[in-house]
Predict the structure.
Amino acid sequence: MLFNEWLKDDTKTILFDGGMGSEIIKRGLKPGKLPDLLNIEEPNVISSIHQAYYEAGSDMVQSNTFGSSYLNLKNHKLEERLEEINQKALEIIDSIRPIDHLIVGDIGPSGVFKPPIGNASIDKWQSSFKKQVEILTSGVDLWHVETISDIDEMRAAIRAIKEVSYKPIISSMTYKKTKRGFFTIMGDSLEKCIDIQINEGADVVGTNCTLGSNEMIDLMSEFKNLTDKPVSIKPNAGKPRLEGTRTIYDQTVQEFARDIIKIINLGAKIVGGCCGTTPQTIQEIKKKMD
Amino acid sequence: MSNEKLNGEILEAIVNLDKEKALELANRAIAEGLNLLEVVEHGFGAGIRKIGELWDEGEIFLPELMLGGNIMQEAMELLLPHLKEHSETFNRGTIVIATIEGDIHSIGKTIVGTMLSANGYNVHDLGADVPAEKIVDEAIKVNANIIGVSALLTTTMTGQKKVVDILKERNIRSKFKVILGGAPVSRKWVEECGADGYADSAVDAVKLVKEL
């Protein structure tokens, strides 16, 4: 399988994709809707974004299914449409995927928390993720569980995938930087998260969202000190601000790409971008990588 | 026991998230006829402010923050009936708080709501993904002084301005203070919206509300 060959090839850095939400808005769609619903309502918009990433140089691109786990769809009163939304996402990305490029099944957070904040549990999370994985497994080459703040929710997602699929898993937690190092907002340290992710069977450990490219340089060094597993890094493009009705990210794509090269030199196996990054960002990284 | 000593113990119990101890101390303050307003302000209030600072500094995390807020609320339920004669002094104001329509990021808003109730405000948390019209309607219904609107996405931030616009349209802008929250919110955005203020953290949000 191509992904496993890439992992074994020491000369290969895998280029992932960038943000989805910001691209949707750029194409003139109104905010305020679950982006995954556009798989049904505006499939051409979603496929043009996937295509732009593949053309920019992404080796692999994720399905538009970040919010399509059962519990998160339920938050939007869309749980009845789980199969339709996930199925359609596969059709869209499959129709434009270039040869020798991969489709990554994207799985995001459920939007519900365990006590004392909410009433979720590992079992509830696992059964929610399983419903999504059962649909996606027919069309994806590998998995990316991302933007997770609770290591127990990550545990549940990996277990759900393992129940139905043998495909490789990239497992990305979201961290905050504190005086004492990197922690999830639930208080789990980087070290604890990596241990659990590996024990549960993740093939790649990583991080995405919240932190910008600059802060993720330090985070990458910490990863390298803690594990020999391949690492995936998808930072945000700095902090956004609104000018009139336009969203502005002050960090340039050149600055972002320079940071990514430093992250690669520190040993990252997979790199890409999260919120605020675009096909131009990926193109710039590609240029600097070559 | 003196107020001062008790307040010190209460602060410690809150920071240690020791609910049993905190509630026992609240009951003792009532039984011994201590100045309860002072107990609320310098005991429980000080404790919850400390919790907020520890969160901002990354020393504690979301579960501890929420637990601290819950202990504070339970203690307040014990103390409030005995504070009736001072209730006007104590109830600092009524706040309607929500994450705007299209945005389901509720953590920041929930933290701010918890900290505000812990600091003596009557908080009506409407949840996430709430239409601007509904926020205004609720504020009128509960006779709020302050409306807090959260947005994490630059795409939903426009809804924060909509709340202010609706208040203006209905000629009730002066009845409410409107405060904004969320990572992308800036002073410039507050000015553009015609809102009354914003805060970067839960601790700052409490300070802001007290200043309004």
User: Anything to note?
Assistant: Chain A touches chain B at residues 21, 25, 31-33, 75-76, 111, 113, 116-117, 176-180, 183-187, 239-242, 244-245, 247 (CB under 8 Å). The longest strand of chain A covers residues 204-212. Chain A has a mean pLDDT of 93. The CA atoms of residues 71 and 247 of chain A lie 29 Å apart.
